[in-house]
Amino acid sequence: MTTQFNPLNETTTPKVGELLNDWCTYLSAQRRLSDKTVASYMEDIKSFFDFLFQTFQKPADISLLEELTITDFRSYLAWRSQNNIDRSSVARGMSAIKNFFKYLMWQNVVKNKAVMAVRVARPKNHLPHPITPDQAREFLDYAFKMNKKEWAGWRDKALFTLMYGCGLRIAEALSLDVKDVSPVADILKIKGKGNKERLVPVLPAVKRALQTYLNHHPHPLPEYPLFIGIHGDRINPGVVQRTVRQIRETMGLPETTTPHALRHSFATHLLQNGGDLRSIQELLGHRSLLATQRYTKVTTKDMERSYQKAHPRAN
């Protein structure tokens, strides 16, 4: 469902509101961005128009958008920072604004080159926090033990084995239906960000976990969600996150052990065992190799720790 902006919102004229809705449709239909991404862009845009309304004391119209200067855009960034918005959210917001203005220029509605001159401080590049292979094996064992219902235990073990064994995002795993894995094949087709499809190999351990779960699935019909909750609906990500939180507390793992940490562990363990960056990039579905190169820093840190610990002259 495409996110909509109320054209009668007091922060914009009806014409600008309609353009915002056209932009949302363009992002969904032609850019093929997910509903979640479009909704995030719209939240950022709403914040921008709130700022303009407070600053100029009138709804934003076409002429105002054309007359905005680089100082106005920088003032918006400062306003966001003063409201304790983190750096990555500020950067994402500016990206949304630039995207919207590019669309307006493409439509020959607004011409404003000032927005393209705005530079945002780069967000801090946080390193991924994988768990060790031994911790991953123990984690999967706990996934089965944490549930009182046997079928739910097999579900959680299959879900986390799939995420760790194939490097899936939580949304990618939870979007699967029974027909996508039944029968369990050697290759799995995954629809990732921007509806971009990729193929990932299914390891024997992942196949066994999926098949065992399918044998216990309460509703193993082709069109049914693969991972379901106790009421038969597609399981909510919040439920999965809560389960991970329970497991990490039981195991004494750090708070960085989230569902996404299983994907980080997949990439890090492949790299540590000789996997090449290009292949890992394809498996993860990263558009840029830069996103995948973060894992080389993790393995470098591991080597430094091993060196400091093992070398007789390290201390």
Question: TL;DR of this structure?
Answer:
By secondary structure, the chain is mainly α. It contains 14 helices and 2 strands; from the N terminus they run αααααααααββααααα.
* Share of residues in strands: under 5%
* Main β sheet profile: 2 strands, antiparallel
What is the C-alpha radius of gyration, as a whole number of Å? 23 Å
> What is the CATH topology assignment of the largest domain?
hpI Integrase, Chain A
CATH architecture call of the largest domain: Orthogonal Bundle
Number of helices: 14
Note the gap between the termini: 60 Å
User: What is the number of E strands?
Assistant: 2
Explain what this protein looks like in three dimensions:
It is built from 14 helices and two strands, in the order H-H-H-H-H-H-H-H-H-E-E-H-H-H-H-H. The protein has a two-stranded antiparallel sheet with strand order 1-2. The protein folds into two domains: 14-117, Tyrosine recombinase, N-terminal domain (DNA polymerase, domain 1, Orthogonal Bundle), CATH 1.10.150.130; 133-310, hpI Integrase, Chain A. A hairpin with a 5-residue loop joins strand 1 (187-191) and strand 2 (197-201). Helix 7 crosses helix 12 (259-272), helix 12 packs across helix 14 (289-310) and helix 13 packs across helix 14 (289-310). It is elongated and about 60 Å long. The chain is mainly alpha-helical. The longest helix is centred in the first third of the chain and has 22 residues, at 35-56.
